[in-house]
Amino acid sequence: MKNKRKDIPLDVIKQWLADSDWRVRTAAMNACQGKDIPLDVIKQGLADSDCDVRTAAMNACQGKDIPLIRTVEPPETVYKKCAGSVIVCARIPDGAQVRGSFNGKCRADKAIITEIIGDYFGEPVGISTHDRKTTYYAGDEVVIDDFDYGFEECSTGFHFFCTKGQAEDY
Q1: Domain positions in the chain
Q2: CB within 8 A of 31, min separation 6: which ones?
Q3: What is the pTM of this model?
Q4: Residue 89: enclosing H or E segment and its boundaries?
Q5: What is the CA angle 119-80-138, rounded to 5?
């Protein structure tokens, strides 16, 4: 016996997305795969607090442009504190996804390193304090392939602050 997949109506998907159970919201996003779904529905899934729902929303986006969501418009130059108190200056491209707030830690899926303030044992390099492996040099283009489209502060992305003072105090 062959299992026939029944299309779930958009109004039912929207109801499921409002459910308190993350499993129901994930099922709603899974039901969107292969369908022409309005961007507001996809955005709702991408903004969900649960990572499984966000993953299902990303799968529903395959072959489509992911809607640009910026919770903060970063200034022209942003700052990242690295090992040895080195400050990495970067520019966030116009088309980059950005999560965070002006007065807090932010993260983006893309950045262009513009300057390194300070040095690490004589080398003008920023070394991530998170993993001590990731390095940043002036001119580098950073692209985060596994960017988390949710709104968790400490998730995947190029982390930065909007002011140099915030980065120095971190």
Answers
A1: 10-60, 78-169
A2: 8, 13, 16
A3: 0.71
A4: strand 87-91
A5: 55
